[in-house]
Amino acid sequence: MAAIALADMLGRLEGGVMGPIAGYFTDRLGPGPMVAFGGIVSGLEFILLSSANNLLIFMLIFVGLMSVGFRLGYNNATIPAVNQWFRRKRSLAMSIVSASSGLGGFALAPIVGLLVFTFG
Fold first, then answer.
1. Which of 14, 33, 81, 116 keeps 20 to 30 A from 54, CA to CA?
2. Does residue 3 surpass a pLDDT of 80?
3. Strands of 1-120, DSSP E
């Protein structure tokens, strides 16, 4: 459980550093291509993550690659996408997206920890 928390913390730290870069590309390319990029990269990284057999490989894949896909594709591109898609009730749509992202992480962390603890 501590390894997952450490990886998540390092990934969030990387996200803070990458925020301006992600904002630049989202502004230049638009949120649609960034969300697509994040989906493709994250999917490939989940495939790579299945071959991680020790903590170092897990950290390299999770922090070095997976955080890039998630931060560039999802965290930084969803709010501009919602901003473009919704004209009426924009604030409600943005609050739902922001709240669901946090609630999803809150619900998913114990489930992933339990799966790792149970199945290794």
1. 14
2. no
3. none
Tell the burial category of 94 from Cβ atoms under 10 Å away from its Cβ (0-12, 13-18, 19+): middle
What pLDDT was estimated at residue 71? 77
Half-sphere exposure of 9 (CA within 13 A, CB side): 6
Q: Residues 119, 14: contact at Cβ < 8 Å? A: no
Residue with tokens 């790792």: 116
CA 8/CA 91 separation, integer angstroms:
28
Structure-block tokens of residue 116 = 């790792």
- Show the tokens assigned to 56: 């170092």
**Total length of the chain:** 120
Most distant CA pair in the chain, distance: 49
Give the mean model confidence (pLDDT) for residues 114-119. 85
The structural domains of the chain, with segments of one domain joined by +, span: 2-119
**87: amino acid identity, one letter:** R
- When comparing pLDDT for 29 and 49, which is higher? 29
